[in-house]
Amino acid sequence: MRFFVNEATSIDFNFLALDSTIDDGEELFNPLNPNGASEILDIYNLTDEDDVARMALALDALVADGSISSQSLQLPNPIAGGGGGYSCSQLEALASAAGVAGVTAATLGCDALIGGTGASYLGLLTSNPDAGDLLPFLLIGLTDTGMIANYQGRNLSRGRWVADSDAFAALPLPWLAADYLVPLGGTRTPFTSELDYNIAVNHSMAVMSGMLDLKLTYSHKGDSNGDLFDSPLTYTPDQDYLDLYGNWTPNDGDYYVGFYIKNLEDSRNLAGSRTTSEMVGGPANLYFTQPRTAGLTFGLNF
Prior knowledge:
19 strands
């Protein structure tokens, strides 16, 4: 839109307003936070004895407060679905060597059931040779909403672990936290701002046997976020800029000369940010606006 103040001066106004809010009822799994946690309380490496001891206490605490069932701390024999498993005597010897109490042998199929404690469960789990190749790549995280696993950079909750059951058959982890679907209602589509506008003041004057056209532009860019989950890492605040343009055209010539100064106030604003990977996160990549830039222009009219 253009408004004329007088013959020499005008004002331009342009804007873009939109509603990018997602409707209620839409949900999405967040691979960077599979169980909707807000705090990590501890991390366990199952190849470290001290970590295993702390995790055993944490599992017992989850059983005590009802977060998980003691049955989720029982392991069948064989642990891996397709393996031959152990005989009852082998299991009892293995459990004894690992310092595990409460191993019993059932008559049907010679299944071994661990007594439902954190120590007994982890003792047999970590001594299972079928799991040996997996343990160095596995971390267990205790969060305020339960436990999750991280295997080679992937965060896995119960549903994601089950989906990979062929690979992880030797590591049954039924006590993992359930998958959490993030409600998207009320959040905005990534990288969209809901109000952008600019106001430009144009003025023309006679100078040196020619016409000098000047334009001062104020631009506003609304805030936005780089992902669907409103992560603070990918938030871009709103920003403002001033640009100045000038152009002189002689009365009797077919050329013109001009100048420009962009980002007149030399504002160093954050232009955008995103995480390295939507699957495993990583550092945020930040993009900043250009500093103040100035230059000259020259052209011919044909």
